[in-house]
Amino acid sequence: MELLIVLGAAAAVAGGTVWVRRNFRSEIDRAKRIRRARRGGGR
Q: What number of other Cβ atoms are within 10 A of residue 17's Cβ?
């Protein structure tokens, strides 16, 4: 029973990750660009 709960939780996390990446890809890319610009500009 506990194994089913763990597998269900793992499936939910994996599904949530895919959903977030699909829906917020532009935001993630923008954040990466900002982070790179800050890192590169600081040196």
A: 10
